[in-house]
Design brief:
four-stranded parallel sheet, 8 helices
Length: about 240
Amino acid sequence: MPTAHFRFHDTLNFFLPRASKDRLINHDYEGRVSVKDMIESLGVPHTEIEMIVINGRSVDFNTIVQHGASINVYSTLFVPQIPNPEPLRPPYPGRPKFILDQHLGRLAAYLRMMGFDTLYRNDYHDEELAQVSHDETRILLTRDIGLLKRSAVIYGYFVRETNRRKQLAEITVRYSLKDQVIPFSRCMKCNGLVEDVPRESIEDQLPEGTARYYDTFHRCTSCGQIYWKGAHHQRMQALLKEVLE
């Protein structure tokens, strides 16, 4: 039976069973198998991989594995200098846009707070998440490893942290968001854009007494949600400061 020899580097070991972490994996297989399918059968989703090197040569996902192949798989954390590197996906175009699964509702609100176009519904099916991610060139953030293995998903990431604030810090670092933040420019409720609105035009929609204490108001252009710089806004500012520092 043919055998391939794998070494997964850095953060990719997160997806491996304890007995396989940070060590050489001798993997037996049958038939013609692409390196992408073989890697995912070992537990690592293709979206987490930045480079694959077989016998010292950079290859793409469709490369057929040969018996005795020595395969090194790298994450974004460290990519070796290899002649003629083979890109696994096109560079992400422009400012990041996201779509999140049902487990990440609070993270979705936080990313909107930072001004990033972020889709979220608690009733998305996996097929829909994968397809929208593909069709709209959105980064799929999820706590479901299997979802990231769907072939339609080009850009995606498994969120390691479970604490909501730490999740936001994790994504901020992973996608270098710090210098792209436009705070409070999107509605945390629906993802619509937020605009300034005169107090007089929305005074009858405010809780009793609010207009007496606040002068500046904003309204979502999509759902009509009204925002002002109350205690909730101050807590969000503190969170944003904590994450960016």
